[in-house]
Specification:
Layout: E1 18-23, E2 33-39, H1 46-49, E3 55-60, H2 70-86, E4 91-99, E5 102-110, H3 125-138, E6 152-153, H4 160-164, H5 170-181, H6 184-191, E7 203-206, E8 209-213, H7 214-220, H8 228-244, H9 252-255, H10 265-268, H11 279-296, H12 303-322, H13 328-366, H14 372-381, H15 385-397, H16 403-410, H17 429-432, H18 444-447, H19 455-468, H20 474-512, H21 517-520, H22 525-533, H23 540-560, E9 566-567, E10 575-577, E11 584-586, E12 590-596, E13 609-612, E14 629-632, H24 640-648, E15 652-654, H25 659-663, E16 668-672, E17 677-679, H26 681-685, H27 689-699
Parallel strand pairs: 12-13, 13-14, 14-15
Antiparallel strand pairs: 1-2, 1-4, 2-3, 3-10, 4-5, 6-8, 6-9, 7-8, 11-15, 12-16, 16-17
Helix pairs in contact: 6-13, 7-8, 12-13, 12-20, 13-20, 13-22, 14-24
């Protein structure tokens, strides 16, 4: 050791309030956002070790004046200075706070992949400023709506991000709007004895990102019978509760609002006494929900029965259109009309009834009539379309069913129902079911017995029904629950066939006019509808291409934006904390296994824990692959995949939120549904393997510019 060598000893920082890691750009795209991960547990290694409870804060660099959190204000100013000092916008910064205005910088490195970022960034100032002004306008009182303000959520009621994804293309968004959120949803709620909202779209698009207007939704869950004054007070109460608990935005019907009568509701409504409601007002709310529920539960003439029967008309009309000599554009028009009238419209009603069924089942558990295990057994015993497909696939592997027969029933299904880029089962059978040469399996689903309520349980249900004033027998209620849950899934299966055919026709149309499939995904369905009734002197191909190009330009901005899951205040469009959502755990089982999150269509999924961000009926092929578990980024207790996993008895974490990206980095996980835990190797084996892996990866970086401060 020469006399010129030195050993530097860096003391540990004490009294740490916040510590974490900040990136001075979006790590995936390089776009101008500060993305900050931090913890408040006093440790300076929580983020880098991957161990512990983390928060995420995101801020647009050019509008830092809208940040409210004092710690984040200080850190943002420091990050600005570091970018100047390092002459780089692509930095990885480790920091800690001991006071709100005192931040220590441990290390500063260039991000390793910054050369891969696009250098010419899209200027987001104008779209974000425009969005800020628009949100500010929309949060004001509305002359035709109850409630003083609103919030915009990507996961309330219709859950657009779960169905469409965070950055959907125009064709998918316009189809979903047409089939559900423009007026269909409100027409059916009006039929089901809720307030009439038929002039109000439920979904808006903020620079291409779909959001649900929660004030509109909350209005739509108010019974018609409830007087105006109490109704307005109730909507304001719901809005205040959501703003106070924004993490509940993906489960508003369980955590925020009361949309029907169920066992235990009377006791739950007593919380209104502490929120300014009088005893008379609470009684009015209870009576209106009771009357509405009695109307929908009618065992012989319930409106849901008519809605379930309507789907047969779509089957007939589907065949008429398919067998006609109409042009592709004409067929698209009539598929849209018939699917809306006899498919998505009745589906919206049956889905509402099925939600009531789930509310009743949950209340059975809360009233100790059945256990959580019996709840899961009941769901697993329902003979739904998915269970039938699973059984048919097993028959196919055993040679008892032909491939053509299988595809005749299920070939129309595609993951991401509204995405034209997603291949149908009959277009990519070998990709979705490539393990056909493997032996058939005895899936637990096939072994599940029909769940039967005991006489004692039915007597308890009857006592609660009589006590509440619900005019239905326990047998009739159980029949209602089975009929509506199965009916919802069957109608969805049938109308998705027409939607799939629409996308197939549009794909063919794109080939005829030499427009690439990737571009066709940006077409607004309203343009095709208009082409049916409006013959213009312009070339129809030019009209389509013009619309596609306009939407493609918009999509460039859409992809660059980072917006929160719920917008409660105008400033949220510039800076926000990522919500710490509470996932829904399905079943009461504990499993451990290898994870898989990439190329799932082509991979061997047997006995794997599968990660999918968004989920719809098109992903039902997963259940034919004998997966061990499922984790989704989005979704709630009553979402499609939650119901599927409950039916199949497959442990799942639905709506993992920000934790989804953390968990999918693990190669092996344990899902403990009973205790609502997801554990990585580190926690299961008692080692620090994950933390070591992260730190070793950091240490292998070379050629980095590093600033070190004593701390």
């Amino acid at each position: 050791m020469s006399s010129y060598d030195e050993v530097l000893i860096q003391p540990m920082l004490s009294d740490v309030l916040i510590s974490g890691v900040a990136f001075t750009c979006d790590i995936n795209t390089g776009d101008p956002y500060y993305v900050i991960n931090y913890s408040q547990n006093g440790s300076t290694s929580t983020v880098t070790s991957g161990n512990g409870h983390l928060k995420t804060f995101i801020a647009y660099k050019n509008k830092l004046e809208h940040i409210k959190d004092p710690f984040m204000v200080t850190l943002a100013r420091v990050l600005q200075n570091l970018e100047i000092i390092c002459e780089s916008d692509y930095l990885d910064v480790e920091f800690a706070f001991t006071k709100p205005d005192e931040v220590f910088i441990f290390q500063v490195r260039p991000l390793t992949n910054w050369h891969g970022y696009k250098i010419e960034r899209i200027n987001l100032n104008d779209p974000l400023d425009m969005l800020y002004r628009r949100v500010k306008e929309l949060l004001q009182p509305h002359p035709y709506l109850l409630g003083d303000t609103t919030c915009y959520s990507v996961m309330s009621d219709f859950n657009p991000v779960e169905i469409l994804g965070v950055y959907p293309k125009r064709l998918a968004v316009s189809l979903f709007k047409y089939f559900f959120t423009d007026d269909v949803w409100a027409c059916k709620r009006n039929d089901y004895a809720y307030r009439n909202l038929t002039s109000h779209p439920a979904m808006v698009s903020f620079c291409g990102i779909p959001y649900i207007d929660t004030r509109v939704v909350f209005n739509s869950f108010i019974p018609k019978e409830l007087n105006e004054k109490t109704s307005g007070k109730l909507v304001n109460y719901y809005m205040e509760k959501l703003i106070k608990h924004p993490a509940h935005h993906d489960k508003v019907e369980f955590e925020i609002i009361h949309s029907c009568y169920y066992f235990g509701l009377k006791e739950q409504l007593q919380e209104f006494l502490q929120c300014g409601f009088s005893g008379n007002e609470i009684n009015e709310i209870e009576c209106s929900l009771l009357k509405l529920t009695n109307t929908l539960l009618q065992p012989e003439h319930g409106i849901y029965k008519k809605d379930i029967d309507e789907i047969s008309k779509l089957i007939d009309n589907h065949e008429k259109i398919m067998n006609s000599n109409m042009s592709p554009i004409d067929k698209v028009y009539w598929f849209l009309e018939m699917c809306k009238k006899f498919g998505t419209l009745p589906y919206t009603g049956v889905a509402r009834a099925a939600f009531m069924s789930v509310q009743f089942l949950r209340s059975f558990v809360a009233c100790n009539i059945i256990t959580n295990g019996e709840y899961n057994d009941f769901m697993a015993s329902l003979c739904t379309v998915t269970r039938q497909m699973d059984q048919d696939y097993n028959s196919l592997k055993q040679g008892k069913m032909g491939k053509d027969d299988f595809l005749q029933k299920y070939g129309h299904i595609r993951p991401n129902t509204y995405d034209i880029l997603s291949l149908r089962y009959d277009e990519a059978f070998d990709m979705y079911f490539k393990e056909m040469d493997m032996p058939a399996v005895s899936h637990p689903t096939f072994l599940t017995d029909i769940f039967l309520f005991t006489n004692e349980q039915k007597e308890k249900i009857q006592i609660e029904l009589d006590k509440a004033g619900l005019c239905i027998s326990s047998e009739q209620l159980i029949s209602f629950i089975k009929e509506t849950i199965k009916g919802r899934e069957y109608i969805k299966f049938i109308f998705s066939r027409s939607i799939s055919e629409i996308l197939k026709l549009i794909r063919q149309l794109g080939k005829e006019i030499n427009v690439p499939l990737e571009d066709i995904a940006h077409l607004d369905i309203e343009i095709l509808k208009q082409s049916y009734v409006d013959l213009r002197y312009e070339n129809s191909c030019d009209i389509l291409v013009q619309n596609i190009n306009m939407n493609k330009r918009q999509y460039d901005y859409t992809k660059a934006l980072k917006l929160p899951e719920i917008i409660c205040f105008p400033e949220d469009v510039y800076a926000f904390h990522v919500l710490e959502s509470k996932p829904s755990f399905i079943t009461m089982k504990t499993i451990s296994g290898e994870t898989i999150s990439e190329n799932i269509c082509n991979a061997d999924l047997e006995n794997k824990i599968v990660f999918i961000s968004v989920a719809d009926p098109g992903y039902d092929f997963l259940f034919a692959k004998n997966i061990k578990g499922l984790i989704t980024e989005y979704g709630g207790t009553n979402s499609h995949m939650a119901i599927r996993c409950a039916e199949m008895g497959i442990p799942a974490v639905i709506g993992a939120g920000a934790k989804y990206h953390q968990w999918k980095q693990e190669q092996w996980l344990t899902i403990d549904c009973l205790n609502h835990r997801v554990l990585g190797i580190e926690f299961v084996n008692g080692t620090r393997e994950y933390g070591r892996r992260v730190r070793n990866t950091r240490r292998k970086r070379d050629g980095k510019k590093t600033l070190r401060n004593e701390g």
